[in-house]
Amino acid sequence: MTDQTIVLVVSLMWIAFCMRFWYVIDRSNVWQRRLIAIAAGLGGGLIYIFGSMTLEVIHATQAQQAPAEQEPPSATIRVQGSSSEK
């Protein structure tokens, strides 16, 4: 759950970073402001999608490794007594 939150926060940080530049650009540069807004939306969405896909891959590999970490079967150790009959 916290992994998904981290991905969401990083995505929102990208959007906030782009919107910072959007506010700095003069209002007369309409197309430049539009491109920055589009980059903010697409970039934030792609970060979220790729982050979610990466988390699924990580969780899938961890789930495959989990059964391999089971307890080894108990081994019976027998000690044979030394038969030193005299």
Task: Provide structural commentary.
With about 90 residues, this protein is mainly α. The chain has one domain (about 1-65). The chain has two helices and no strands. It has helices at about 1-25, 30-65. α1 packs antiparallel against α2 (about 30-65). The termini are far apart. The model has no long low-confidence stretch (mean pLDDT about 85).
User: How many strands appear in the DSSP assignment?
Assistant: 0
Structural class: mainly alpha
| Mean of pLDDT | 84
Q: Write down the overall geometry.
A: rod-shaped
Concise account of the structure shown:
The protein is mostly helical. 69% of the residues lie in helices and 0% in strands.
Secondary-structure map with pairings?
Layout: H1 2-24, H2 30-65
Helix pairs in contact: 1-2
Core attributes:
mainly alpha; 2 helices; single chain; 86 residues; rod-shaped
